[in-house]
Specification:
Elements (H helix, E strand, L loop, with lengths): L2 H21 L15 H5 L13 H4 L9 E11 L9 E10 L4 E11 L3 E3 L8 E3 L2 E12 L4 E13 L12 E13 L3 E2 L4 E13 L3 E2 L6 E2 L4 E11 L4 E12 L6 E4 L5 E5 L5 H7 L8 H6 L1 E11 L3 E9 L8 E11 L2 E10 L11 E10 L1
Antiparallel strand pairs: 1-2, 1-21, 2-3, 3-6, 4-5, 6-7, 7-8, 8-10, 9-10, 10-13, 11-12, 13-14, 14-17, 15-16, 17-18, 18-19, 19-20, 20-21
Length: about 375
């Protein structure tokens, strides 16, 4: 990434920051953790807490793994970011899961977010100094069936964020933290209805429960994106070859709303800060600290709808919609996707189209996921 591109990205960040102050958008450290990590979920409106299990369930709801029809699997995905501006900013994701027996499983994943190569030049005659800011997470999960239809999972995660430019600020440092996820998943038996069979599913995941991150010894502590996902789904099984799944997911960040006013010299409010509390207090405050009360709290929920048509368990067509309130980020977009299965291999692709005046950094981006499954 050359210096001009870097300036463009900085301008984008400044614009987003001023927008956030005016609209009270909740901001966190390591926001890449909220990016959909695979193409299948991305094609369903960026949701996956209650969809059928796949290799990428680690990101959405690892308790799904014990319901997997496969013994184990490996999933790899690649997501270009800000692809209209640069070519070397991306999110890469590697997942592995293994079903231990009919009641338990374990899984692990690695996510890497690169902000690209940045050439730092103080003077035109200087030799450029190459910087590569990046962030990554490493996590592992254990899932256990508590009954024939319901399972719980616990995840431990290490987070590292190295986005400061050492050549610009020698006092800067990388920030580290750890987090825990708690998730659950329900899946019913196949039941017969009038003209079709059906399966109900439901799930939740409270993710990234952990301490705030600090980039400088005396600097501000930043909340990590503690998040609550709740979703449900229903499969319409028309025959052995045709199935349609309808999916719904609701999300809320469990970090404090920007609620502490910032005043200028004329005693006018020019923005809001988050409360300086620990992460556990932040979780509880997040349900009742919005300045405009309950109506603003409701605006902090996002909703995703998705539909997947599956033919002969080998070809899928997907569509979805994601909606966020105008005053909380204004992310609104349609998603489309497809998937192909050949023996042990799955290949998924997805595409995003913004429907809001706030264009998504993933606009017109084609995302890829590859899975290799090991069967019983």
């Amino acid at each position: 990434m050359n210096r001009n591109y870097f300036i463009i990205i900085l301008m984008f960040c400044v614009i987003k920051t001023s927008f956030s102050q005016d609209r009270r958008v909740i901001t966190t450290a390591v926001p890449f953790l909220m990016i959909s990590a695979d193409a299948r979920a991305s094609g369903l409106g960026e949701q996956g807490v209650a969809t059928t299990p796949d290799a990428f369930s680690q990101h959405w709801n690892p308790s799904k793994y014990v319901f997997s029809e496969n013994l184990s699997g490996v999933g790899v995905s690649y997501t270009p970011y800000l692809s209209k501006l640069v070519s070397d900013v991306f999110l890469a994701n590697v997942n592995y899961f293994n079903v231990i027996d009919d009641r338990s499983s374990w899984s692990a994943s690695f996510k890497y977010f690169s902000l690209g190569d940045i050439d730092i030049i103080q003077n035109p005659q200087d030799i450029p100094i190459l910087e590569n800011p990046n962030e990554f997470t490493l996590d592992a999960s254990y899932s256990l069936k508590l009954s024939e239809y319901f399972a719980l999972a616990v995840t431990g995660r290490f987070l590292m964020s190295d986005v400061k430019l050492q050549s610009v600020d020698s006092d800067s440092d990388s920030a580290n933290s750890f987090a825990v996820d708690i998730s659950g998943f329900f899946q019913s038996d196949e039941k017969a209805y009038a003209n079709f069979n059906g399966i109900w599913r439901a799930g939740f995941n409270i993710s990234n429960i952990g301490p705030r991150m600090k980039y400088e010894e005396l600097g501000k502590k930043n909340f990590i994106p503690t998040n609550m996902k709740v979703g449900t789904a229903f499969d319409f099984i028309f025959d052995s070859s045709n199935k349609v799944s309808l999916n719904l997911e609701i999300n809320k960040l469990l970090v404090p709303s920007p609620s502490i006013p910032i005043y200028n010299s004329n005693n006018q409010i020019i923005g809001y800060n988050q409360a300086d509390v620990n992460f556990l207090s932040g979780i509880f405050k997040s349900f009742g600290d919005a300045p405009d009360g309950f109506s603003e709290e409701l605006n902090e929920f996002t909703i995703a709808l998705g539909m997947e048509y599956l033919y002969n368990d080998s070809f899928a067509i997907r569509a979805g919609y994601f909606n966020e309130n105008e005053n909380k980020g204004a992310r609104k977009y349609l998603t489309f996707g497809t998937g192909f299965k050949l023996n042990e291999i799955n290949l998924d692709l997805s595409y995003l189209l913004s429907t809001s005046s706030v264009i998504s950094p993933l606009e017109n981006t084609l995302r890829f996921s590859f899975t290799y499954n090991f069967y019983y």
